[in-house]
Specification:
mainly beta, seven-stranded mixed β-sheet, 11 strands, 0% helix, 45% strand, globular
Length: 127
């Protein structure tokens, strides 16, 4: 049974940083493209970042480019999302996800293309 568990969320002041983690069981994250998504109150879930499994390609939402990075920790079967220079618009519940046969990130923003989701971790950016 595949399980994804996000952690690392919390309350941070504008300009601060957080590192989110997506830990997995029942699946080797290295074998799949992993996407990070977020959903703010009253808004649709959107793709934030993705890391491919086959070619290492990284994808970022335009509004987070230069501030967020994504990486794998193979030993811990975990994917991290490092978030710097946070602003209130980054406030949301953040989810990690992957899908069966999901090896590349093209089209990862389509949430219907992901089969496995974590329950999310809340990131609040406020002074």
């Amino acid at each position: 049974q595949v399980q994804l568990v996000e952690s690392g969320g919390g309350l941070v002041q504008p300009g601060g940083s957080l590192r989110l983690s997506c830990a997995a069981s029942g699946i080797l994250l290295d074998d799949y493209a992993i996407g990070w998504f977020r959903q703010a109150p009253g808004k649709e879930r959107e793709g934030v970042s993705c890391i491919s499994s086959r070619d290492g390609t990284l994808y970022f939402l335009d509004s987070v480019k230069g501030r967020f990075t994504i990486s794998r920790d193979t030993a811990k079967n975990t994917v991290h999302l490092q978030m710097n220079s946070l602003n209130p618009e980054d406030t949301a519940v953040y989810y990690c996800a992957t899908g069966n046969f999901r090896y590349y990130c093209q089209g990862y923003e389509n949430v219907d293309g992901m089969d496995y989701w974590g329950k999310g971790t809340l990131v609040s950016v406020s002074s």
